[in-house]
Design brief:
Arc Repressor Mutant, subunit A, alpha+beta, 5 helices, elongated, 3-stranded antiparallel β-sheet
Length: 98
């Protein structure tokens, strides 16, 4: 059995990747309000996910206002699917309670 991906296993990052797997793109404010994280905390998690190659970050401006969008990369999609398979394998090993 594979070891769970520690980058994904952190609860906030798992929630981010799960949300991104269901949309084409999500902006910073949407994730901020949906996840209930602080700006600094969300930025830190997104930095780790980007460095792992799981998320693409696209920064732009609308006039003078910065706008940041996030997309799940193909590598991120594969990693998330592998994470769920590994978690299912762990669950399958459990002995039912009587």
């Amino acid at each position: 059995m594979n070891e769970l991906d520690r980058t994904i296993h952190e609860p906030a990052r798992l929630r981010v990747l799960t949300i991104l797997s269901g949309v084409d793109v999500a902006d910073f404010n949407f994730l901020l309000s949906t996840l209930g994280l602080t700006k600094g905390n969300l930025s830190s998690h997104m930095d780790k996910l980007e460095k792992a190659g799981y998320v693409e970050i696209v920064k732009s401006f609308s006039g003078r206002m910065p706008h940041t969008e996030f997309r799940l990369t193909p590598q991120g999609q594969e990693a998330l699917e592998a994470y769920w398979r590994d978690l299912d394998a762990i669950r399958a090993m459990q002995v039912p309670k009587e």
